[in-house]
Every structure is written in C-alpha cells, then in structure tokens.
Amino acid sequence: MDCGKLICSEKSNIKEVMTYIDRNSKGIVFVVDADSRLVGVATDGDIRRALLNGIGLGDSIKTCMNEHFTYTSNPVDAQRIFQQCDGKFKIIPLLDEDMHVIDYVECSNRQHIALAQPQLNGNEYNYLMDAFLSTWISSTGKYITQFENNFAEYCGVQYGVATSNGTTALHLALAALGIGEGDEVIVPDITFAATINAVIYTGARPVIVDIDEDSWDIDPYEIEKAITPKTKAIIPVHIYGQPCDMRRICDIAEKNDLYVIEDCAEAHGAEWKHKRVGSFGIISCFSFFGNKVITTGEGGMCLTDSKELDDKMRILRDHGMSKERKYYHEVIGFNYRMTNMQAAIGVAQLEHLDKILEWRYEIEEKYRHIFENISQIQMQRNDLPDRKKIPWLVSVLVDEKVRDTVIEKLKYHNIDARPFFTPLSEMPIYRQYARKCVKSRKISKRGINLPTMFEVDEVKIEKIASVMKKVW
Ligand SMILES: *Cc1c(COP(=O)(O)O)cnc(C)c1O
After folding, report:
1. Both ends of the chain: CA-CA distance in Å?
2. Which of 462, 458, 373 is nearest to 413 (CA)?
3. pTM (predicted TM-score)
4. Which residue in 72, 388, 401, 447 has its CB near the most CB atoms, within 10 A?
5. How confident is the model over 303-348, as pLDDT tens digits?
C-alpha cells in the first residue's frame, strides 16, 4: 500500500493540497487530523468549486473538504459501492475502526484497457540487443535476411523484401510493377488510407469499389464492373483478418490480364483454402506496425515468387542504385529500407507468431461466447466457406444509432474501442475516385473494434459486455 501520497494534514492550506494532488495524480486527497484519523476527503473538483466561490489558496483545506465521505473497511464492499454509484466515486478509502486509513480501492473503471499491445516476451530483447551491440544498427545485417527469408517461408512464398513500413511496401510493389500515370488500380472502400495513398503516389488513378456484406472485403462482382481498358491491378485487402475470396479475384485478374497485389497488413497467418494469404498476389504487402499481429515497431514487407520482381524491388528500395556499380542509378528509387534492429525484433516475433495467433483466437472465442446472448451485438463472421480468418482486432456490428454512444460509454469506463474505418468514398479527398458504394457505408457506421490484447480475459469482456448492454 502506498497511501502516503494521498494523505495530508488538516492543517494544510489549499495551495499545499493542490501540490499533493498534482504529485499523486489521483485527483484526490485524504485529510487527517493530528491523530491520523480521516476527517475529510477533497477532490480536485471540490477545490476548483471552492476557488470559484472566492475561497483563497491560503485558506485551510477544511473550508472545502467533504466531511461526509464514503468509506469502508472491506475492499469487496468498495467494489459494490462503485457498481451501485456508477461513476460517482473514483477512490474509496479503507479505514480501520479508529478511522485510520489502511488502504484505498480504486474503481476498476480507472484501469485502462488498451485496444492493442504488442507481445514482446520472446527473444525480442535478446536479438535487438545483439543487433545493437554488433553495431549493425542500420539497414545491413544478418537479421534483415533472416526476417525476409523466414517470413516469406511462413507465407509459402519464395522472396521477401523488408521495408520501412506497410505503406512503403505497397508503394514499392506498385512501382516495381511499373504502375503509374494513365493506369487504374481497384481498391476496396473499406480499408486503411495507406492502400489508396500508395496508388495515388504512383500517379495512377485509384478506383474505389464497394464491399461484400458478409466478409466486409472487396466484392468481386464490383471489381468486374469497375474494370476498364486502363485497369492494371487490383488490391484486395484482407480486412480485419478476413481473407478475401481469392479464387474469384484471381480468376477475374487472369481473365482481364491484371495484377493482384494483396494488402495483408491485417491478416498475418490467415488462410484461403488452406493456403496462407500473401501467397496469391504477384506481390503481397504486409505491415509490422505496433498494433498489427506481429510488429517491428514500424516495418513492412513485400513477398513475391518472381526473382525478377524481387530484384527490382531491392533496387528501388535502395535509391534505385545499380547492384553492379556503386552510386550509379538507372531508375529513380526510394529509401524504403528496414533496419537490422527492426528485423531483429521481427525474427523474434516470428518465432512465436503461432502462439500469438493462438491467444488471439482464444480472446475472440471468449468474446464470442459472452456476446452470444446479446442479440444486439453481431460478431465478425468466422464461418465463411474456404476462409480461415485470424483475429486482428475483435470486430463487431451494432445498430448504427447507438454505435457512437457505445464507444463513448466504453471510453468513459477507460476501455479503448474504435469505430471501423471511414469508407474512403465518404472523405472529400478520395470521393472523386469512388464508384457507387452502399454496403460499405452501412457496415462502417455499425462497426466497432474492441480491445484485443493479451490481458483481455473473461472478467474484462464481461465488463465490456455490461457497459454495452447498458446502452440498450
Ligand atoms: C496498417 C495498414 C497499412 C499500412 O501499414 P503501415 O505500416 O502503418 O504503413 C496498409 N494497409 C492496411 C489495410 C493497414 O491496416
């Protein structure tokens, strides 16, 4: 117990108490008399109101403390009080018979539940330190090759080209395929902005199409309708870990002589007909940002089975510099390299990717089980034919009328939840590229991503469920 920071003498003046509150960052002090007995409680709100009413900084804390405070001797009772007085108390003192403060209980609402958190409990630290101590901290080193090879192998693809992030991976892929001005590239309406931005960087025109209502992925039927003589590529995005219908997309691409570039940023390890995503496109792009399934801090990778594209991407990634002649540039390239330190973390993350996916499945199953009886919540489908989705962020749909209220209430209880991506077609900077999108708007308005981190257990999910239920 560390109550010290919360306790001040009744002799203190308001200015002194404000300093205490500032230091303990709990927004509250317990005021005790000369015998250390609790005589009052003052919150930063009490003090603010007192000051507004003309009480001065030099006046005694006794002028504004609450003498009729709530207390108990039993931590379980404290939890009951928190529940009954939803939000009224943040901290309840625990007192002995003589009114001495022995401890305090913080409302568990105060405990922050984050949306995502990386799992760095494998060899991440060891390999990172190894890279660091080797002094190969820039973009040459053994971990880069190892990470590229191991990740490509995991996805069942021949070559991997590590990049500085997922966005540069997408841009690198498009550039290596020679996509540019005068070309069109088909993208889904629901995705993270990086997918479309990468297309715009090349000078090509993105064409935004609607999604499928069951998978929330790009709708193959809409792809077919959007194809013109200028179309060069399709970028299917396996959104929220749900694999796209790769057979139909690859069929359409083959029939129309188009490239498929998979955006796998949210779907490491997901499968279509027992084949991992990333193995279908001519090039596939991954992100290793901090909230993705595995992370390198920032980072990305392009996968391909083509030796020629692998070579091209390596040259473009490294300023377009000729492999044979140093400082001789044949194309305008970029600096999209990953560092050896990032790759070191990546190698370690890959070692326990299967474990990480396992606990993600477990968390999603717990959510599924607890939400089963709540008819107002619809979980993301995991029963679509041919697909093995992975849980990236647990994703649910609710009625659009209450969606924002649900997120607000969760925030109020310190639970991090997010609305789905805004459809690209709804944002003024992208609207000009959009075909008619109806389903994406319907789904997006109803969608919520819920905390999907290691510490989310049944108790926390029950709590999330109870906060959500109160909205109905
Ligand atoms: C995260 C993400 C990206 C971009 O990855 P960064 O590493 O953040 O640049 C691209 N596409 C999708 C679908 C993503 O979720």
Report:
1. 39
2. 462
3. 0.80
4. 447
5. 999 999 999 999 999 999 998 999 999 999 999 999 999 999 999 9
Contact (Cβ atoms closer than 8 angstroms) between residue 128 and residue 341: yes
pLDDT band at 110 (very low <50, low <70, confident <90, very high): low
Place of tokens 């992925």: 217
Q: How far is the CA of 336 from the centre of ligand 1 (A)?
A: 15
Closest by alpha carbon to 308, among 316, 319, 300?
A: 316
Closest to 276 in 3D by CA, of 303, 306, 249, 313: 303
Distance 235 CA to ligand 1 centre (A): 13
Counting Cβ atoms within 10 Å, is residue 402 exposed (0-12), middle (13-18) or buried (19+)?
A: middle
- Length reported for the chain: 472
Measured distance CA(188)–CA(182) in Å, rounded: 20
Q: What ligand 1 atom has the least distance to the C-alpha of 266?
A: 15
54, two tokens: 């003309």
> For residue range 240-272, what is the model confidence (pLDDT) as tens digits?
999 999 999 999 999 999 999 999 999 999 999
Contact between 70 and 78 under an 8 Å Cβ cutoff? The reply is no
